[in-house]
Structure formats: structure tokens, C-alpha cells
Amino acid sequence: MDRIQATYIATRPDRDPETLGRAIALEQSVEVIEELVTPEIRESLVGRVESVEARGDEKYRITVSYAPEVAAGQVGQLFHLLFGNISFYPRLKLVDVTLPPAVTGQLHGPRYGIDGIRLATGIGQRPLLCTALKPRGSSVEHLARLAGEFARGGGDLLKDDQNLVHEDFESFKHRVDACATAVERANDQTGRRCLYLPHVAGSGSRLLRQLEFVHRRNLPGVLLCPLVMGLETAGRMAADFDLMYMAHPAMAGALTEPEDHGIASGVLLGTLARVSGADISIFPGKGGRISAALSECRDVVDLLTCPFNGLHATMPCPAGGKTLDMLEDMGREYGPDCAILIGGDLLKSGDRLAEVTGQSIGKLAGLYGEQQHAPAEWRMSSCELPGMQISALKHYLKKNPDFEWDGRESQLYKDDDTLPFKGVRRVELMGNNGEQMNFDLRYFELAPGGYTSLEKHLHTHVIIGARGTGTLVLDDTHKPLGEHDLAYIEPLAVHQLKNESDEPFGFYCLVDRDRDRPMGP
Amino acid sequence: MDRIQATYIATRPDRDPETLGRAIALEQSVEVIEELVTPEIRESLVGRVESVEARGDEKYRITVSYAPEVAAGQVGQLFHLLFGNISFYPRLKLVDVTLPPAVTGQLHGPRYGIDGIRLATGIGQRPLLCTALKPRGSSVEHLARLAGEFARGGGDLLKDDQNLVHEDFESFKHRVDACATAVERANDQTGRRCLYLPHVAGSGSRLLRQLEFVHRRNLPGVLLCPLVMGLETAGRMAADFDLMYMAHPAMAGALTEPEDHGIASGVLLGTLARVSGADISIFPGKGGRISAALSECRDVVDLLTCPFNGLHATMPCPAGGKTLDMLEDMGREYGPDCAILIGGDLLKSGDRLAEVTGQSIGKLAGLYGEQQHAPAEWRMSSCELPGMQISALKHYLKKNPDFEWDGRESQLYKDDDTLPFKGVRRVELMGNNGEQMNFDLRYFELAPGGYTSLEKHLHTHVIIGARGTGTLVLDDTHKPLGEHDLAYIEPLAVHQLKNESDEPFGFYCLVDRDRDRPMGP
Is A387 on the interface with B (CB under 8 A)? Predict the structure, then answer.
């Protein structure tokens, strides 16, 4: 199957189930009345009803499929496609999703996953022990002490409670730094590596600054709440800052709990968590304060870990007020590849936290053995960072006569009367050769009578005159541009450079590295 | 009441309703077992059960309150506080929320709201007519034609269908530009102002670039899907880019539709949409393809428009496959302060789109009159945006003799034997004067015998020789730097520039805008 497939259970549908299937297919892909759908759009974009089966109890199982392109390579659009508008249809539950490689290949999935977490902790084979720093309102010193004691006892994963939020960055920084320091000191003592994942929340620059701090502080990852922050935003932020991503299920129950409506937990906390890049997915396990049926837990675990188009497996993390006396049963139930979250019941051991943590690790090791390795470096992509390739390149460019530079090739643009430019030579000087900069520096030269394209774009230019004299056409003005004259070209300003002289006209052109393509005037 | 209040209906609760109330209060504020809550934390952070009432049919109405600080001034945290973890409790619906001024004051609410939209369109008094550009898969030309015809007919608000998503920025830009141009041309003809709101989706730099384009293209706002993108992210992005924000309810039905679980539509599409900054909130109206009960519609409209701690009112936008024959009834039902969305039923008028739009506007004017004003400038904060001050500034810099530029001051660094530099003149040329660039361009000049500080930093430099000849000291090498010689200084390389000649030595220095401070060698 090379199409996206979504399967729904409709309970007591408000229309004939076949008609409902066609309505879903149309609503989710183009959302328009049938008569406005052309044959081309129907063929390429509109969903197809693959099957409709009666399941008794006035329930019908409806499967709809879509071309991979409909997801547009975006987790947010996939989420929308599966249940966005039809979330308003009565008594409809999304229970199964199949994604072809054409979709998963664009979404990437977990970057670390179970294998990456095992490498980073150095713990093979057994379930990992996880706890949560809380309660909110505790002093920084108290939280740091808990963090250090859990790590000293050999705990594997330490996450912030998702209620730990700060109104300002400085208090976030101070608290996270204190907890990270406590964990590092304990790790130095034990020779193990407890991974500390602070909770990051908010939006805009507040969000980015916290992520930047976690990255620079050399912490391995973060706890994010994807259904509060946005499923796609959460995965993207973790990837952009090269952080492990633990997904908290806050708000997910609004979708998973109703029996006849919403999204099944296996799809939401399993498949969608995995494709959106969660390395660890927290879900309510059976028993304790927040409990789920064992069959639902098994669905989530299966979908996080099953073979899936080559995506890494996500570490399942059963949670929800679980207690220490459940530890071995959970270890048996969920298998060795899980992280078991015990919060309050572990924290309440107070001064004995390290000791009780050690005993708990012992119980998990007793089930499967431990196989401890030296923890490995956790950053996955540092060797790919542009800054690392630089030393091999030539970064001192002596100008030769006629504005040529050693180590940089001139590109001569072929003249052709049908082209919108004429007589242009270009040299890519800096930015395109492995340098770590947010901008590119190029030299352009126009032969007498030459000109660049008349164009506009969202990105800006800075122009520095370097040789001879030309003319800058900027919206309705014409300005001469001689040596060391400067111009700034603002977003979407229509511009062109011309050489109306008898000598070459050369200029430097500076642009942002990340930029859009030009449009016509 | 100076506290946040949340009211839930619990149906067939799994425990004594008083106990359930206390569990909610603890779960949502500190999520920890009672014995770990200190008296101080209990007093300042833990929620209080305000009331528990039996409502018959095994239903109980439970009201819990929290200190305003618990929301931490963030929409995301407020959302989480109201229903995050307890979304996993069975049969629990959030039906009412009261927010004190201490909370709404930090969240701001709509920036334009009904009044701002009326100013921008120039239409007082009557309901606005809105349509959606679709279907996805149509050519750019077709969509632009629809846009132009709707505007030519006097339509008020034009939004993209939320299925209009693009895999790349270039196709977004071309489509939006074409539709915007068509609307502008029509507005020039009619003297009215139809507002065009493109759909923006995705995350990270993809999201930012689209928003930047909409802002720079001088469009008034965007359509966003807050429950896909994140409630807080959506409001924040619109505010950061100074755009009107129309909220699409995709995925909201997963929370609002179950009778016994989730979040009531009045709370989600009314109160939460409003505090998170939606200027227009789309919701399913009564009748048509996606229909809601009239009582729910009234709740949404009331909560969007009622007096609420001084927040602007959000424009209600009933939608969901509504048809032209419902127009006048809807206008009567929802009152003059609404935007009525008619999609497919209007678009199917084909070549008669402008004419049918005009007739529809006539019907709405017939209900309440029209009171047309000259449309006002819609930007609320444009004077605060760095990019918007540009036209008043000088962006064409003619070089004067001795490397001075009109409009830019030279800074002469005072010489003092205790300082690590000598004989330095600096001119901030571009980047620091309101230009929108990711880098800064400066000119430095060293007098004979002058030098810069010997230093290193994480950010990089590009140096372009401009006048005379100097020496670049880079780690252990010395390189001459004459006119148009170039150098790249990589991260943490120790460097210094010297003038050992008898003439001034000038050079351009390019740096990333966002950069760290230098350290000693």
C-alpha cells in the first residue's frame, strides 16, 4: 500500500455509512462540495473509501485512503488530514493509521529512539527507571537535591514535572542549572549516566531561549507537551536544537478517553508520537492514579516499537501515579525496552531516595540482567555541523588583478537575448565554502551595457560598490553607485543594477544565507 | 473573585465527588501525592474545591479554583491547568472558566478584535461576509480569480481554506502574492477593502518565513489552526508579526463533541480562543454540513463578545458548510457583530461570483444597514517594528572623501595606553539602523601604528580590505591585507588587525547580528 490509510469506527452514524465514508474523504482532503471538484483534483487529492464494514452494535469500520502528497510532508497537516474537520462529526473514532514510506520518509521520526537512549545511558537490556522532579513550589535547592539523589542511586532518566514552568528565563536557567549540576556530580561518583530532561514550555523567543540553554548546557534533551505546544512544533524544536525529545501526554486524554469519539491512544501516543519525532512517549499505564486498560497500553507499546518503514523505535514510558510495588510487574508486562516512571512513590522515600532508587534499579536488573556499557556521547549530528568542516578550506583570499580571487572561481553568465540579465560575472566569495555565517558574500561584475534581472524578493541585500560606477534602480529611483557607495535593498523592493559606463562595474552583494528566490517585478 | 475558576461536570464519577474534586485540584496544580505537599505549597499553589453539587442523572458540578500565578502568564500553561492531566479522568467535561484580571492582563487577548476589523474593512453595523479560497489542487490562476471576484463583489473577508498547504515556501509565496494582487486590484475598483487572510502552517523557520511574507506583503492577517499548531504558538506568532489572527477550529471537535468528556465549545472556541488572541474565531454554526446545537453557538458568541476584564471582543464566525439561503437567518441569529462564512455554496456561482457576492452583501446590509467608512490603516504597532521605520531612514550611503558616509557617524575610539586597542575609527554602516538583516556591516579604520584588540569569540568575521594595507594576525600567521583582499575568521580563532604602514588602513568587517561577546586570547 503506497497510500495513507485511516480507519474509523462510526457509532450510530447520522447517515448511511457509505455516504459517511465519502463525506470524510472529501471533507479531509479538499473540504468542498462535490460539484466544485474537477476530475484532476478528484484523482490526485480527494480521499478514496477503501472499505466499509458493519461491526455490530450499530458500529461501522470505515477505511479511507489518501495520496502521500496530501500530507505535504508536515506532521501538522497529517494530524489535520486524519481528524481535523471531522472531529466535529458525531461519534467517530480514529482507530488505525497506516503510513507509506513516502510519508514517513519526510517526517523522519525519532532521532535517538531506544537505541540512542541506551547508548547515552550505557544501559542495555533492562527497563530504565525514570522519575519526575516535583512538586512545583519547592525550592531550587530541594529539587536539585532530589535530582542528585536519584542520580546517585543509579536512576536512569530524570524529567521535570510538566508543572515546573517559569514566568521568566532567569529562574528557568537557575533551576535547570542547579539540577543539572547535581546530576553531573552524582554521575561522576557513580560512573553511570543519568539523563536529565528539563521541561520546556511557552512560545516564540521564550521557548527558543530555553531550548538554546538546554543545548548549550550540554543536557541531552527536554520534556515537551506536544498536544499543548503543537505536535509538529514539539518535534521540530527538539530536532532544531539537537535534543532528545520526551513527549508528555497532557491533554491527550481529551481525545483518547471517549469510547466512541476522538483518536485511539495507540494512534495518538503511539504512531503520531513516533512519526513526530518523540524519542520517549509517556502514556498512562495500567493501575495507579491514572490508569488505562492493558489492551490500550499494549497497542501504544506495539506501535512505538514495531518495524515501521525503517523509523527508529520510540521508548515507551508507562506512567500515571505508578508505585514501587508495581515495578517488577510493569517490567514483565512492558518488556525490557521501556522506561518506567515512578514519581511521588519514589520521591516520598525522602532521605532514603538514593537507596530506594538503587533497590529499584536492582529489581529491574534482576528481571533481565543489566549489561552496563560506558555511556556514549549523545549528540548525533555534531559532525554534520557546518562549523566542523572549516579548517580544511582556504579562508584568506588575495585579490588578483581584474577582481579575481585565488581559490574562488568566476561564473560567467551566458548571454542570451531571451534572458532577463546580460553581461554578468559572479564570484561566490564567502559563506558557500563551509564558513559558518548567517550570510553570503558575493562579488558581481557587469560588463559595459550589462544589467541584472529586474526583480524583488523577501530577503534583503546590502550592496557595496567595488569597481567603476553603475546605476542602482530601486523602485522608481536611479542612484549612481561608485566605489564604496552603499545601498540597502529592503524586502520586496523592485531593483536592478545596470552598467551604463564604458568600464566594468563591480560590486559586493551581501544576502542572508537562508533566503527566498526572486520574483518578477 | 481574584482566582482562576474551572467548573467541570463529572458523569458517573469513579469515586466520591468530593474526593474527585480534591484529586483534580491536586493533579492539575502540583501533580503529586498529598504527603509531599508542604503547607506553603498547599497555600500558594494547590487548587481549592469551591463547590460540589449533585445535578441529577449521576452528574456532579465541581468547581475548583487556583491562584492566578499558577497559569504563569502563559496560555499553554493555562490550557494545561484547566484540563491537561485530568483529560485522562473518565467522563469529565470542562464547562465553564472564570479568569481574574491578574490572568487576562498577562494574556492580552485580541489585538484587533471586532473594532479593529470594522476599522480595517470600513464596514460598521452589519455582519461581514466571509468566504474560503478552495479547493486545494486548483491552479494559482483559478484561486486568484476567485479571490478577485469575491472582492470585486464587495466581499469583506477572504480566508484560505486550511487545506491550502504547500511543501515549499516558493509555491506559498507565489500563490499568496497572486491572490493578494487580485484582491488589491478589485479593492482599487470598488473603493472597499476586502481583507485577505492566507493560511499559514508548519513550524520552525518554515512557519516564520510565511508569516514574514504575509507581513511584508502588507496583508492584514492570517488563518491559523491553534489546536494543530498549539494554542499559545498561534496567538504569539500573530502578535510577533503584527497580524490579525483568524482561528480555525480543526481538531477542536475531538474535545467539544463528546457529551460527557472534554471541553465545552464555549470554553474552547469562546473563552480560550479570546484569551489566546484570536481576532476572529470560526466555529460550527447551526445547520449545514457541520452543525452544532443553537445553545452551543450562543455560548460561543456570548463568550467571544461579553465584557471580559477589558479584553477586546473577538469576532464570531459561524461556519461549516453554510449556504446562501441561510444568510439572513444567520444574520438575525448571531447579530450584527459576526462574520458569516459561506464557502462552496458561494464559490459554485462560478462566473457570477461577484454578482452573487454583491447580492449577499445587500441582504446583510438590508438587515442592519451598512454605515460604510473609509477603511483605516490596520497595522496597530507598525511604528514599533524595526522593519517599518526604514523608509524614513537613509539607505543609500554615498561615500565622502576619507571614507565617511552621509547619514552615518564615525566613532573614534579614545586612545589610552591601558586599553587593548589603539587608533581605531568605526562606522556602523548597515544592520544597526533598522535594516532587516541577519548580519551587521561595519567599517573600521586604523591610523598608522593603530591596532584592534587581540581577541577571540564564538562568532565569525569576514574582513574585506578597503583602504591602504594592513596586517591580519590570525593564530600564528601574519597576512597582508590590501584593497579587496578577503579573510574569514573562524570561531574561537585568536585574531588582531594592525596598521604598520604610514597611511590609514580601512576594512569592512561583517558579523552575524546575533553574537557573543569577545574573550581575551
Answer: yes
Q: At what angle do helices A204-216 and A231-240 cross, to 10 degrees?
A: 40
Provide, as residue numbers in chain A, all residues whose Cβ is less than 8 Å from the Cβ of B30: 134-137, 161, 163
Looking at this predicted complex, what is its ipTM? Answer: 0.81
Taking the CA of residue B102 and the nearest CA in chain A, the distance in Å comes to: 14
User: Is B37 an 8 Å CB contact of chain A?
Assistant: yes
Q: How far is it, in rounded angstroms, from Cα A493 to Cα A508?
A: 18
E strands within A211-329? Answer: 221-224, 244-247, 262-263, 280-284, 315-319
Does the pLDDT value for residue A386 go beyond 70?
Answer: no
Q: Where residue B379 falls among pLDDT bands split at 50, 70, 90?
A: low
Render pLDDT for A337-383 as a digit per residue (tens, 0 to 9). Answer: 999 999 999 999 999 999 999 999 999 999 998 888 888 776 654 33
CA distance A30 to A7: 19
pLDDT in tens, A171-228: 898 899 999 999 999 999 999 999 999 999 999 888 988 998 898 788 999 999 999 9
Residue A230's nearest CA partner among B242, B276, B243 is B276
User: Do B78 and B71 meet the contact criterion of CB atoms below 8 Å apart?
Assistant: yes
Dihedral sign (CA A203, A209, A210, A214):
positive
The answer to whether A234 and A276 are in contact (CB under 8 A) is yes
Q: Do B487 and A396 count as a contact with CB atoms less than 8 A apart?
A: yes
Which of A212, A400, A439, A512 best tests the B interface by mutation, with the highest count of B CBs <10 A? Answer: A439
* Closest-approach residue (CA) in chain B for A138: B41
Confidence of residue B382 (pLDDT cuts 50, 70, 90): very low
pTM to 2 decimals?
A: 0.81
Q: Which residues of B touch A166 (CB under 8 A)?
A: 72
Residue A32, min C-alpha distance to chain B (Å): 6
Average pLDDT score, chain A: 91
Tell me the nearest-neighbour CA distance from A493 into chain B, angstroms: 10
Q: Are B108 and B17 in contact (CB under 8 A)?
A: no
Cβ neighbours of A115 (radius 10 Å): 13
Confidence at residue A101, expressed as pLDDT on a 0 to 100 scale:
94
> In this model, does residue B380 exceed pLDDT 70?
no
Which of B35, B484, B488 is facing A399, going by the closest CB pair?
A: B484
Asked if A482's CB is within 8 angstroms of B32's CB, the reply is no
DSSP one-letter string for A29-85: HT-S-GGG--HHHHHHTS-EEEEEEE-STTEEEEEEEE-GGGGTT-HHHHHHHHHTG
CA-CA distance, A501 to A12, in Å (whole number)? Answer: 80
Placement of cell 488530514 in the chain: A81
Q: What are phi and psi of A173, to 5 degrees?
A: -60, -45
Q: Which residues of B touch A203 (CB under 8 A)?
A: 74, 76, 230, 232-233, 235-237
Handedness of CA A67, A71, A77, A79 (dihedral sign): positive
A11, A22, A33: best to mutate for the B interface, most B CBs within 10 A: A33
* A83 chain-B contacts, CB cut-off 8 A: 251, 254
For chain B, domains (ranges, CATH) are: 4-106 (3.30.70.150), 108-367 (3.20.20.110), 389-512 (2.60.120.10)
Among A27, A36, A163, whose Cβ lies nearest the Cβ of B31? A163
| Torsion, CA A374, CA A376, CA A377, CA A380, rounded to 10 | 180
Query: How far is CA B26 from each of CA A341, B45, B89, rounded to the nearest angstrom?
Result: 19, 9, 13
Which of A8-12, A128-132, B105-109, B371-375 comes out lowest in average pLDDT? B371-375
Residue A261 has pLDDT above 50, yes or no: yes
Chain B contact for A260, CB < 8 A?
A: yes
> What distance in Å separates the CA atoms of residue B60 and residue B58, rounded to the nearest whole number?
7
Q: Is A203 in contact with B233 (Cβ distance < 8 A)?
A: yes
